[in-house]
């Protein structure tokens, strides 16, 4: 089997035993990127020279007899919203084109400390605002299953890189579904950890009370290994949880749902859901019952209001966070010819540097926060957020985890929803409640839709710091379905 087709866990073991070198593994993935990324466009920046140097450093440490972590020497693609001192960080925006940060994000630093080899930075919707990666200032990424379709968003470059075998692992961020939805539509695993379980320090902020770094992988165990590698308390992040990382790797190896109580969210079905998505979801519910889980229907009525609440809270926080891009300190500067005031330069720069979706959300958020409208819009949305959290709490008194489709449809064609923001926002219908509540949620592949042969995702939601439950259920589903399919779902993808 090609090195690019092996799991991250397998690669880590091969490198540690010196059956292959980390440099060989890195080169194989760099060759794969050179072969297919012209079609996929997963990467905004590839740093082959540094990646090979990182890999050689791992090989040297292993040769000296050092015992390294399970992912030492394994390549990873890094979402271009985490700061990297040795590579540009653009957040998919022209306003930061070419910017080289003076520091690493905590997630970046922990990847390096774990010995992972960073291949480069991946494409995303500008400032992580979108569900298709079409909002990137550098053009869209493409779904490896069908290059005419979206790979999800905002972390579409990260999901495409893993699904196209350009990297066994990648990082993403999930603000309203930006890890789980891309994972679902590309047939891979994507996890949103508990909010505060992974550090936001050095993550270019979109919505600070929602943004959550998390892993992408081609299987549940690899995702757990990566989450364990970069998670944990960080004094540099005031919202970081000072608690041990949940036992996610142990749970991923357990892969057993016998005796678990699983709730099917009543509100996540019906109109707007693709029949093939619901068919695969219902089959997976039957599978969980056959594996010994007790499955019941659970109603969470306020989930119906999650989408409008989110699209008041997130733009409000975006309006505040993006005020720092003012042409005064770093990044793009337009019109500074000595004749214009600072206010004029700022206005010209923001007009030229921000794309349409970012401008739309800044304006929405500024309006929602304005005098006379704050209580009617932002204040009310926060009350709805509280009610959603209460619905989750009530549900978790009845069941151990909740499940739903990850997204109502499979990957849609590039351009199909570009001029219809509401249709685009509906891609995150099932994922947004977990962001508003701050709890854990994962997407794992559960089959292909009959209509188009494209991947469908199963979403598993768990309470705050119940991340291990997501991995336990996800691994059980993955094992049972792989046995049924004769291998991972991704093995059924058309070869690039």
UniProtKB/TrEMBL annotation:
Positions of region (Disordered): 133-152
Ligase in keyword set: yes
Top-rank taxon, per record: Bacteria
One cellular-component annotation, GO: glutamyl-tRNA(Gln) amidotransferase complex
Active site, UniProt feature: 79, 154, 178
One Gene Ontology MF term: ATP binding
Enzyme nomenclature, EC number: 6.3.5.7
Domain annotation Amidase: ranges: 25-470
Reactions it catalyzes: L-glutamyl-tRNA(Gln) + L-glutamine + ATP + H2O = L-glutaminyl-tRNA(Gln) + L-glutamate + ADP + phosphate + H(+)
UniProt keyword list: ATP-binding, Ligase, Nucleotide-binding, Protein biosynthesis
GO biological process: translation
Signal peptide: none
UniProt cross-references to InterPro entries, sorted A to Z: Amidase, Amidase_CS, Amidase_dom, AS_sf, GatA
Gene3D superfamilies to which the protein is assigned, alphabetical: Amidase signature (AS) domain
SUBUNIT field: Heterotrimer of A, B and C subunits.
Similarity-based family: Belongs to the amidase family. GatA subfamily.
Function noted in UniProt: Allows the formation of correctly charged Gln-tRNA(Gln) through the transamidation of misacylated Glu-tRNA(Gln) in organisms which lack glutaminyl-tRNA synthetase. The reaction takes place in the presence of glutamine and ATP through an activated gamma-phospho-Glu-tRNA(Gln).
Annotated protein name in UniProt: Glutamyl-tRNA(Gln) amidotransferase subunit A
């Amino acid at each position: 089997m090609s090195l690019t087709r092996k799991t991250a866990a397998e690669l880590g073991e091969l490198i540690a035993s010196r059956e292959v070198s980390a440099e060989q593994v890195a080169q194989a993935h760099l060759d794969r990127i050179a072969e297919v990324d012209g079609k996929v466009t997963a990467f905004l920046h590839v740093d082959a020279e540094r990646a090979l140097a990182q890999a050689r450093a791992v090989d040297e440490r292993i040769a000296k007899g050092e015992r390294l972590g399970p992912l030492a020497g394994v390549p990873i693609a890094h979402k271009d919203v985490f700061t990297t001192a040795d590579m540009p960080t653009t957040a998919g925006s022209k306003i930061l084109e070419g910017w080289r940060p003076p520091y690493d994000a905590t997630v970046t630093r922990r990847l390096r400390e774990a010995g992972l080899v960073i291949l480069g930075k991946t494409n995303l919707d500008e400032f992580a605002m979108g569900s298709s990666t079409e909002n990137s200032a550098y053009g869209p990424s493409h779904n490896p299953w069908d290059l005419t379709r979206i790979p999800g968003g905002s972390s579409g470059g990260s999901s495409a890189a893993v699904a196209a075998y350009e990297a066994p692992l990648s990082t993403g961020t999930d603000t309203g579904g930006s890890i789980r939805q891309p994972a679902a539509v590309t047939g891979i695993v994507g996890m949103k950890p508990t909010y505060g379980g992974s550090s936001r320090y050095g993550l270019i902020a979109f919505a600070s009370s929602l943004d959550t770094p998390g892993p992408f992988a081609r299987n549940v165990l690899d995702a757990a290994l990566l989450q364990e590698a970069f998670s944990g308390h960080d004094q540099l992040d005031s919202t970081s949880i000072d608690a041990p990382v949940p036992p996610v790797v142990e749970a991923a190896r357990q892969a057993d749902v016998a005796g678990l109580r699983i709730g099917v969210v009543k509100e996540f079905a019906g109109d707007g859901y693709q029949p093939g998505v619901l068919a695969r979801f219902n089959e997976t519910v039957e599978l969980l019952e056959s594996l010994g889980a007790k499955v019941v229907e659970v109603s969470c009525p306020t989930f119906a209001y999650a989408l409008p609440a989110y699209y008041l809270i997130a733009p409000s926080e975006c309006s505040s966070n993006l005020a720092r891009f003012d042409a005064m300190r770093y990044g793009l500067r337009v019109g500074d010819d000595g004749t214009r005031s600072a206010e004029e330069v700022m206005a010209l720069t923001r007009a030229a540097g921000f794309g349409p979706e970012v401008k739309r959300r800044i304006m929405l958020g500024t309006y929602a926060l304005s005098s006379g409208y704050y209580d009617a819009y932002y204040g009310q949305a926060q009350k709805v957020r509280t009610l959603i959290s209460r619905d989750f709490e009530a549900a978790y008194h009845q069941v151990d985890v909740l499940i739903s489709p990850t997204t109502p449809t499979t990957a849609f064609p590039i351009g199909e929803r570009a001029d219809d923001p509401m249709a685009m926002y509906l891609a995150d219908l099932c994922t947004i409640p977990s962001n508003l509540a701050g709890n854990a949620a994962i997407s794992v592949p559960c089959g292909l839709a009959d209509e188009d042969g494209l991947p469908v995702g199963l979403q598993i939601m768990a309470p705050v710091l119940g991340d291990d439950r997501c991995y336990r259920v996800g691994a059980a589903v993955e094992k049972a379905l792989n046995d049924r399919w004769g291998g991972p779902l991704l093995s059924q993808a058309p070869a690039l």
